[in-house]
Amino acid sequence: MLLSSGFFERLSQHADCRPQHAAIVTASVRLNYGDLLRQVQAGLEYFRRQGIVPGAVVGLTLDDEVEHLVATLSLMAAGAGQITLATHDTPILRARFAERVQLSHVVAASDAFRVAGTAFIQFPSQEPASSTMAAEVPAEHGSTLFLKTSGTTGDMNIVAFREEQIAAQAARHDDYSGERLLRLASIEHNNSKRHRLYCVWAGGTNVFRPRDATDIVDFSLRHAVTCLDISRMHASDLAAAGNAHELAGVKLRTGGSEVPFDVRQRIQDKVTRNLYVRYAATECGGIAMARPGEHDDEATVGRLLDEVDLQIVDADDNTLPPGCMGEIRLRAPGMATEYFDSRDDSAMRFRHSWFYPGDIGYLRSDGQLVVKGRKDDMIILNGLNIYPAEIERVLESHPAVSAAAALSLPSRVHGQIPVAAVELRPDAVVTATELQRYARQQLALRSPRRILILARLPRNSQGKIMRREIRPSFQPIKSET
Amino acid sequence: MTDHEIRDIIAQQLEYACLTVMRDKKLTPVFLEGRHDIALGELEMDSLAEMELCIAIEINTGVSIVPNELQSIGTLNCLVDVVRKGMQ
């Protein structure tokens, strides 16, 4: 049994115990744990030479997944904090996060991703590594991983995890040690980064797909993938592929959005019976998992993972018995206790040592958890959580817009799709396309996919916008025959 | 919804995805007029661009297409046909 709380130490132990075991596999590269350790040591040495000291906060803008993982582990070893400033995010968004976490450096493959006021470090290094160096990381300078999540107050929240918290989350997740893990979402996304780290923690094999490998089945078979972790959309997509049944022996894990029973049935019929549906939150990691044989028409998310303490409570925080619907609250090792810089959301979500994810559900007498929906109006697009307030705040910052209302439209493929309706200021002239472009610059993947300009947004007698009444306006116009 | 409007939705989405082949070859106007067809493979869309195109089609027309199906559709004109038929 390996015992350590730091990823570098853990990686060193894997490199000692099974140096030839594959750590990273891509279409063209295979790194075993010995190789990975050497690359991380070289990265650590390089980052130190570039002036990264324990406590520095570094933005990572690397879309090459292997380079991203090596840089992540190297920064952990250096005792630096890190936040992903994704290549798919807009410069405005990257600059906003940089400011919030007081970034000192940006690590990127190209200086096109420089952020004003921070030092730029090109990665990978163009210099040859001079020697290997043991990482001596003082305990008080353990690294911090900043992960982004949706916020109710109009801006995204940031969760700051210490390295040992990620390790605690990894420890309760299903063991990746014997797995070859492929995730279709890039490591630039929170959840993928977390699971890639869990896989390193367990000593498993991270398999990365090149962008041009569009046939997932073929790629998975060629690289002996044993665990395919994908979004509900990708799972539906896979079920439509003619050769999907060839993955019958693979564990298919999905989650992020509600996975209805008919979607699960289709995946089990067309792809694999080894279907796992996960319930998790950015703030705490894995919570529950429905395993093969546990899927039924209640669309359960399964039994709680080890060491997760979960209750269903009423509006006064009284615990409810099995079968009674109420709000979910939980606590688990490695859970965050607050948001990085949002006192209001922290006070709402973290109370009396419990985390309230904002979901409604019930526990069955057989111990399975059923999540029925959201307490609030959060939108979940392909596993990406978006609060309407984030969209409304951006649209209302446009000089032509006087009021905005964001809402979701249901989608069989994507879960929910964010859209918005706006009311313009008197005499303002702007098109929906211009507003959509504006929102994309500010919100990137979190932007509304359709915007309607209405003469007036429907309001109740108190002046509150009635989102439900806006929804029919988004009905597509029938095609002319 | 007219064919031109369906084409406009697709063209806008391709513009958002910064697919330079459309811009560099000045293909958008001729595609909008239905005078030119483009193989989807030629656009070199990554998975994110494919997902966004599927979302744009679904949200504006109500026609659900999963990204994997795009591979088998072949060209943008065929995609317009699929959307039009799906809306009827």
Tell me about this structure:
The complex is a heterodimer of chains A (481) and B (88). By secondary structure, chain A is α/β, with parallel strands linked by helices. Chain A folds into two domains: 7-373, ANL, N-terminal domain (Rossmann fold, 3-Layer(aba) Sandwich); 379-474, ANL, C-terminal domain (GMP Synthetase, Chain A, domain 3). Helices cover 27% and strands 26% of the residues of chain A. Chain A contains 13 helices and 26 strands. Chain A has helices at residues 7-17, 33-49, 65-77, 91-100, 163-172, 190-202, 216-222, 232-239, 261-270, 343-349, 388-396, 432-443, 467-470; strands spanning 22-25, 30-32, 57-61, 81-84, 105-108, 119-122, 144-149, 157-162, 180-183, 205-207, 227-229, 251-255, 275-281, 285-290, 303-304, 309-313, 326-331, 350-351, 354-355, 359-363, 369-374, 379-381, 384-386, 401-411, 415-424, 451-454. Chain A has a nine-stranded mixed sheet, with helices on both faces. In chain A, strands 6-5-3-4-7-8 form a six-stranded mixed sheet. In chain A, strands 16-17-20-21 form a four-stranded antiparallel sheet, with no helix packed on it. In chain A, strand 25 (415-424), helix 12 and strand 26 form a beta-alpha-beta unit. In chain A, helix 1 packs antiparallel against helix 2 (33-49) and helix 5 crosses helix 6 (190-202). The N and C termini of chain A lie far apart (68 Å). Chain B is mostly helical and 88 residues long. Chain B has helices at residues 3-16, 20-24, 28-32, 40-43, 47-61, 67-73, 76-87. Chain B is globular, with a radius of gyration of 12 Å. In chain B, 35% of the residues are buried.
